From TrEMBL:
Cofactor: heme
Signal peptide, first to last residue: none
Domain of life of the source: Eukaryota
Keyword match Oxidoreductase: yes
SUPFAM superfamilies assigned: Cytochrome P450 (SSF48264)
Claim: Oxidoreductase is one of the keywords in the record: yes
Gene Ontology MF: a single term: heme binding
Family named by the database record: Belongs to the cytochrome P450 family.
Organism the protein comes from: Oreochromis niloticus
Protein name, UniProt field: Cytochrome P450 family 4 subfamily F member 8
Pfam families, alphabetized: p450 (PF00067)
Length: 343
């Protein structure tokens, strides 16, 4: 099933026909169970359910694909990076990235363009913001291309296409294909970039610790910390932090999990604002932190996420037979048993 509007329409049709769930079997080796109804999703969302997250490896062993104890430890270490207040420091970055995009659109209109596909522009804008917020890295990616940004865009595209071809789900087939080879190449570029950023930042932080005085310490504590600083400095109860490899995996996950999802949400928010005629007089206007809860986009954004969810489904892999309501059992097979859960 494709990750397109037609693909989502097909899911809608399946929901109309099967109401709660349906199964695909590829011989005895591959079972795909699609679940739509909350009663069927409940047994799978239970913490002790024998499942694990199933993703194609784009970002290494990060929080997104971890399970059980490993997930709990990483989640505890990374929670400060997810704190809502962190966003307060980034409002200026968001406004400046949006301004670059808005200026580009004004230029295109002045040149006579009457319509454009906005998703790619918004996606570059979210990538630009994420790079500035996570690494203090100004990629200028909205105006010119960079090897790293092209690699991220290519990986996103290849990961989506891989899902659509069932034969490509097996690593030993995928890595032999042209797409698989391109994937590995782009992955190397991304890993090289993140490794460099993490190493430079670690060196910078340790040099800073060695030279700073007491008053500098207080100043540094108040200074805006990038995502990469937060994860470099975080420690668990035993005083142990994340390894460089773990930090790189988390940083890559932020880039992949963060930019396309947010771009999709922004595009649908803009669409809903326009449809509901709420844009009047706000064109090109900057926003302040306080605006976030009062500006109508807050509600429209939530409505957009419900109606046009950027992540319409998640996948779980099962390690033993799974009993669903109505005493139906999905048997674990020797190959893959995947559950695709739609929202
Ligand atoms: C509208 C925007 C977003 C949507 C709709 C979204 C959606 C999701 C969903 C559905 C999951 C769960 C996946 C699963 O359990 O299989 C998830 C996990 C995650 N997302 Fe997002 N996301 C968004 C933005 C972001 C951003 C901006 C970042 C980081 C900069 C991010 C980082 C993550 C991470 C690290 C996880 C793993 C969390 C964990 O397992 O504890 N996401 N996201």
């Amino acid at each position: 099933m494709q990750s397109t509007e037609e693909g989502l329409q097909q899911v809608d049709d399946l929901v109309q026909t099967y109401k709660h769930s349906c199964c695909w079997f590829l011989g005895p080796f591959y079972h795909l169970v699609r679940l739509f109804h909350p009663d069927y999703v409940k047994p799978l969302s239970n913490d002790s359910a024998p499942n694990y997250k199933s993703f194609f490896s784009v970002s290494g062993h990060s929080l997104l694909i971890s399970n059980g104890e490993v997930w709990s430890r990483k989640r505890r270490l990374l929670t400060p990076a997810f704190h809502f207040d962190i966003l307060k420091n980034y409002i200026a970055v968001f406004n400046s990235s949006s301004k670059i995009m808005h200026d580009k659109w004004c230029r295109l209109v002045a040149e006579g363009k009457t319509n454009l596909e906005m998703f790619d522009h918004v996606s570059l804008m979210t990538l630009d913001s994420l790079l500035k917020c996570a690494f203090s890295y100004d990629s200028n990616c909205q105006e010119s291309s960079s090897e790293y940004v092209s690699a991220i865009v290519e990986l996103n595209d290849l990961a989506t296409r891989r899902q659509e071809n069932i034969l490509h789900h097996w690593d030993w087939i995928y890595w032999k294909t042209q797409q698989g080879k391109r994937f590995k190449q782009a992955l190397n570029t991304v890993h090289r970039f993140t490794r460099d950023v993490v190493q430079k930042r670690r060196t910078f932080l340790s040099q800073q610790r060695e030279t700073e005085t007491q008053s500098d310490v207080a100043l540094t504590a108040r200074r805006r910390k990038d995502f990469v600083d937060i994860i470099l400095l975080t420690k668990d109860e035993d005083g142990k932090g994340l390894t460089d490899e773990e930090i790189q995996a988390e940083a890559n996950t932020f880039m992949f999990a963060g930019h396309d999802t947010t771009a999709s949400a922004i595009c649908w928010t803009l669409y809903n604002l326009e449809v509901m005629d709420l844009m009047e007089g706000r064109d090109g206007q900057e926003i302040e932190w306080e605006d976030l809860s009062t500006f109508p986009s807050h509600h429209v954004h939530q409505r957009g996420l419900r109606l046009h969810s950027p992540v319409p489904g998640v996948t779980r892999k099962y390690t033993q037979d799974m009993v669903l309501p109505g005493n139906r059992t999905v048997q674990q097979v020797r190959g893959e048993t995947l559950f695709k859960i739609y929202k």
